[in-house]
Amino acid sequence: MNREPSANPAALAPTADARAVRTAQRRFRRLFSATIAVLVLLVAGLAAANFNQGPRLASAEINLDASVMRGNPRLLLTANQPLAEITAGQVTVSPATEVSASVADRNLTVQFAGILRYNTVYTVTVTDVAATTQDATSTLEYEFTTPDIDIYALQRDSRAGDAGAKRPDTVRRTTLQGRGDGEIVFSAPRIQQYVALEDHLAAVTLAEDDTAAIEVVSFAGGDNVQVPVPGAGVIENLAASPSKYLIAYTFTSAPETAGRRYDRTPFVYDLTEYSGLPVEVTGVDGLPMTVMDLGFVPDSTSLVVQNTGQTMFLIDMLGDAVLTPLGEHDEMRGFVPGTRALVVADPDQGSTIDLADGAVTTLDLPPSLLDENAYPGKLVLLSEQGRYARLFLQETGDINQLASLIAVTDAGKSSVAFTPASDSSRVRDFCVSPNGQYLAVETIPAAGLGDDYPTLPAFTGMTTTLVDLDRGTSSRSVSGFLPDWCG
After folding, report:
1. What's the number of domains the chain is made of?
2. What per-residue string of b and e applies to 419-436 under the rule 16 or more CB within 10 Å gives b?
């Protein structure tokens, strides 16, 4: 019987290379499967961890410059997932600051009450923060540092230079953290007053015959700008809205002026206006107005003026320019720091006017510890809750000398915040910083001599001291007077 020859066993047996390939493939499949299993476990673990972990902070945002200039700044905290509701009790701030809180999706808004302190590290902590999708909670924390602030002062110099001419007056700029009197940003033979804007400085200068001019300096460089005025005369009541590039002032014509004569007529000059011409502020029915005082509402284009009949008006200079009456009052005393509440004084009592709705609130201020044994002077309201600073003159052992003191008073306490370094020095004026943190106090040394300027006269050797109202310290002072806070 014939048979087909059988296949060669050697040909059917796998080669060593083939076996190695199959072995490697099996190992790869096992390793791949194991890797996938591990990744699945990791993903599951991470998902479980994330599910059991509270929200995390993704970003934070705050306008630091505005936080020390305007009331009620906001910090926006954005989480990595939608948030459940937050109460103000879950939010703490160091240093202690009153806040409110609200939530919208992933955004948590922390709103501060009032204005923040300069040069201060704030830490905001929010506890027990939960997402809308699970119960796990976490703590969100954010730290920020508020900026320093520029300080300006006017230094008049009555000394004669090498050529015998009077040395120029200067406006200098420094900061709270700086040292010394800072850099010169403007100089002229005679400077009556100035106001500082964000990028400019406007100054009233005097000629030898005492006629006034207005000069605008750009901090970015370039030529100074001379603001057109109606002729020879006196300029007073210089004021500014720094963020809106507006200045205001009153002009009075010199006695020998021909034609129309101006009498404390208010003008507003817009640094951004293409025409470069000031605008006269007119009264009822567009008639010329004579004013006793004026000032800009903080961070706005609105101007408050007080006419000779003591009636006050609110006017939006870049709006409809309609006059809104604010009533008759004896005196304008500026604005409560961080608000648009105008402080006014009357013979019997002071009050505030809310310029948002015109509501008038009578001030019922607590007594000061110096009321019984000192003579009261200028009063500056520091808060809408009735905290105030007041200058007093107190009798001393010298019958020809009164000591200057500034006391700060609120419903809880009253204390002396400032006394001059020397008993023979006296306080000439003071004002509060835009955020209500500092008093700027002008003092005159005993040896100070009058400079005989026709408007806003001063004395040689004057110094401006900065008093931290919360800490009760006065470790910073600069030479000169008229700090821009008081403009």
Report:
1. 5
2. bbeeeebbbbbbbbbbbb
